[in-house]
Design brief:
By secondary structure, the protein is α/β, with parallel strands linked by helices. It contains five helices and seven strands.
């Protein structure tokens, strides 16, 4: 006679608890699908995820805008420079015979530096170097000096209307005139304004020469040089 198969769920007359029954017995109420606490937790997690994704997207868009120049961040250096770029002092007109002047031609017009230098000399300016140079500046002319030559530069500008003043690091009172593309002529001698005034430096970002090679490196030529 065949033996009846043993019931594996009963051991020594006691029911054997299976893994699935044990898991079901220890499921907390909050882990059920329809539990309100679990629903609120899911909503909170979803909201946090949306906020994080939005912040990352905003950061990427801001970074791209800065790289493309659409957003410019102010810097302490730029703010400091803007406050001290153009001399604010009022200068008296310095007599031309006290001004040492160098004249350079950055245009394609041959002989321009020599012609203008002779005109300055006729007005009793002390003309030194005369020659050709290069400059990326667009305008009438640059008048360049160190701090010691600002008063002299003011007088030069009164003879050269429309010019821009630029300060460099030289310590002597000499002044350089760099003739550029829009130059036409000096002011008529009888029309030169000799009343006190300020230097004209309308180009906010190009007034002070940080790099000694900007705007030009004038060649050292003797006063009698024929270049220009």
């Amino acid at each position: 006679m065949a033996r009846k198969p043993k019931d594996v769920s009963v051991l020594h007359g006691h029911h054997v608890v299976t893994a699935s029954e044990l898991e079901a017995a220890f499921v907390e109420p909050e882990d059920t699908e329809d539990n309100p606490l679990r629903l609120r937790r899911r909503i909170l997690h979803g909201a946090v995820l949306v906020v994080l994704v939005s912040m990352i997207a905003a950061g990427i868009l801001t970074a791209l805008a800065i790289m493309n120049g659409q957003i410019q961040l102010p810097t302490a250096e730029r703010s400091h420079a803007a406050a001290s770029l153009c001399p604010e002092a009022t200068f008296d007109y310095t007599p031309p015979e006290k001004i040492n002047l160098n004249v350079f031609n950055s245009t394609s017009r041959p002989g321009l530096a020599r012609t203008v230098a002779d005109e300055f000399a006729a007005r009793k300016f002390i003309v030194g170097n005369v020659g050709n140079t290069t400059s990326s500046y667009l305008g009438v002319a640059l008048v360049v000096s160190g701090a010691a030559g600002q008063s002299a530069a003011f007088s030069v500008q009164r003879n050269l209307p429309g010019s821009d003043y630029v300060q460099d690091g030289r310590t002597d009172p000499s002044v350089d005139v760099i003739l550029t593309g829009d130059y036409k002529e000096l002011a008529a001698p009888e029309l030169v304004d000799q009343t006190p005034g300020r230097l004209s430096c309308p180009r906010e970002t190009r007034r002070i020469v940080e790099d000694p090679k900007w705007p030009v490196m004038p060649p050292a030529v003797p006063p009698s040089g024929s270049a220009g």
